[in-house]
Design a protein that fits this description.
The protein is an alpha+beta fold and 390 residues long. It folds into three domains: 3-149, Arc Repressor Mutant, subunit A (Orthogonal Bundle), CATH 1.10.10; 169-267; 279-389, Winged helix-like DNA-binding domain superfamily/Winged helix DNA-binding domain (Arc Repressor Mutant, subunit A), CATH 1.10.10. It contains 18 helices and twelve strands. The strands form four sheets. The protein has a four-stranded antiparallel sheet. Strands 1-5-4 form a three-stranded antiparallel sheet. It has a three-stranded antiparallel sheet with strand order 7-9-8.
């Protein structure tokens, strides 16, 4: 349903509030005149661009969550939960830390602001009158305008001196890991992890080389085994575990019947399945991960500097414990998308790291959607201090 239809169902009180927000000059007692004036105002490109410039960081994060969510309607409780989540933290005034602002965020006031902008409406039927939705054409217009707004902040180059391309590789490495487990007896420590020598043997067989962890530090949140194994292999291991290809018995790691079948038939995993799993696994610490991936898809059709992506996208990202938004973008999103074969990562002598969407990335991202309730729940993370960690 488009904006004109939703305005037609709105009561005159909401229409008056929208008109006042945009300083519309019209008869506030005429519903028809209010609707026509609001439509004329909101259809102007400069109006939308001005709204974008005035948005707070938490409003940007909220709008991005709603833009890429395929649900037709949201309950008040769902919207309030999203507002609380997206408005939790911001950089402090000194710029060198993160302040919890959850107490300062009033979800109802945020929802009212979105209604007064004409971006959020109640449904009009008996079943939907207590639910909320964004007009379809407002979604498209916001998406188009914001794409242009972000693109103007980016720096593009022709071709880097060299780049890494890992398309289709991670699925092959899943098979290599399974083959090792099929051919060797893997013993586990008392806390359920592989011994260092075994892990080094497995890592040495994979296409992409990683070092074993020197220090575990505060590593948690990005998977069951993220604390114990390097980033890429942690994803491979957890994928195999949740897909039912391996099982952890007392003191041993073994293949399941399904895992043995993969090895015998030499079947490499579908990269789309691993990407979908990554979304479910990482969206706990990065709630708007799917939206951020979609923006990278839209913005990185050409070689784009990572530095300029920081400027454009970091305000959409909240810190996660000791991971800053900059680290989340570069290490948890861009680098992992490169490992998944979705992005190519290059290096330019003048501009540093650059990225470009791969040929594999476009169809996989476009063809994959993970709903909000499809999230892998990990154990509750501990409350840690620097003294406990170091």
């Amino acid at each position: 349903m488009n904006l004109s239809e939703m305005l037609g169902y709105a009561d005159i009180g909401l229409l008056g509030a929208i008109a006042r927000h945009y300083n519309c000059d019209c008869n506030s007692h005429s519903k028809n005149e209010l609707i026509q004036t609001i439509l004329a105002t909101l259809n102007r490109r400069d109006t939308f661009e001005q709204q974008l410039n005035d948005l707070k960081d938490e409003d940007i994060r909220l709008m991005n969550r709603l833009l890429f969510d395929k649900r037709s309607y949201f309950s008040l409780e769902e919207l309030m939960a999203i507002v609380k989540q997206t408005g939790r933290q911001r950089r402090d005034s000194a710029g060198d830390g993160w302040t919890d602002t959850q107490q300062d965020v009033n979800p109802r006031e945020t929802i009212i602001r979105f209604k007064q902008r004409g971006w959020l409406f109640n449904g009009h039927s008996q079943q939907t009158k207590y639910l909320y939705r964004i007009p379809d054409d407002v979604k498209r217009r916001f998406s188009d305008c914001y794409t242009g707004y972000l693109s103007r902040q980016l720096h593009y180059i022709d071709n880097p001196a060299a780049y890494r391309d890992e398309q289709m590789i991670i699925g092959q490495d899943v098979l290599r890991f399974l083959r090792y487990a099929y051919q060797n007896e893997i013993e586990l420590t008392i806390d359920g992890t592989m011994y260092r020598r075994t892990l080094q043997s497995i890592l040495g067989l994979l296409h992409v080389q990683e070092e074993t962890l020197k220090m575990r530090g505060w590593r948690f949140g990005y998977g069951r085994k993220f604390r114990d194994y390097p980033d890429r292999f942690s994803l491979i291991y957890d994928y195999c575990y949740y897909a039912g290809l391996i099982e952890e018995q007392t003191g041993r790691l073994t293949l399941t019947g399904l895992g043995e079948e993969r090895v015998k038939k030499q079947v490499a995993e579908n990269p789309m399945d691993i990407y979908k799993f990554w979304l479910k696994l990482y969206k706990g610490p990065i709630p708007n991960l799917q939206a951020l991936v979609s923006w990278l898809q839209r913005l990185c059709g050409r070689w784009t500097t990572v530095q300029s992506l920081h400027r454009a996208l970091v305000r959409m990202i909240q810190p996660y414990y000791f991971d800053s938004p900059e680290q989340i973008l570069e290490l948890r999103i861009i680098r992992m998308m490169m490992h998944l074969g979705l992005l190519q990562l290059g290096d330019d002598p003048e501009h540093g790291p650059v990225v470009r969407m791969s040929k594999l990335g476009d169809p996989i991202i476009s063809g994959t959607y993970v709903s909000e309730d499809e999230k892998i729940e990990l154990e509750q993370e501990p409350t840690l201090t620097w003294e406990q960690l170091y």
